């Protein structure tokens, strides 16, 4: 294949231009003219520490894969404080004897409990005493009975005005 004369000349000029640029950009040739600078005498450098080679980090280009579905996320942790069970007592009777403090009878858990502040009823429960293994009578007034569920130290109020 024979090239026309103008293409041969153009190719020759391109090669000459590339060669000229190549020899102009050599790393040995300075880009700026050097100017003399006053320098201080060099101080002895501290001894160099030996360079320890660092291990090259490897990259796994083909990690193992599985067709199995991912494991389910762990169930959320319940951080709410525990709640006491519903109050198992109900008012079965209440009365007042000759303008004295009110006496209240609660029934629950298969038993009946007589509550009073100051009375001489046998088997009575006064504030500060336990009804059963889990409930303590804290307060007895004409309108409310306050019981504390001891495992959680939770106070519950039983209203007397609607019984």
TrEMBL record:
The chain crosses the membrane at residues 5-23. This is Uncharacterized protein. Residues 43-53, 68-88 have a biased composition (Pro residues). The keyword Transmembrane applies. Keywords: Membrane, Transmembrane, Transmembrane helix. Residues 28-89 are annotated as: Disordered. It comes from Pseudomonas extremaustralis.
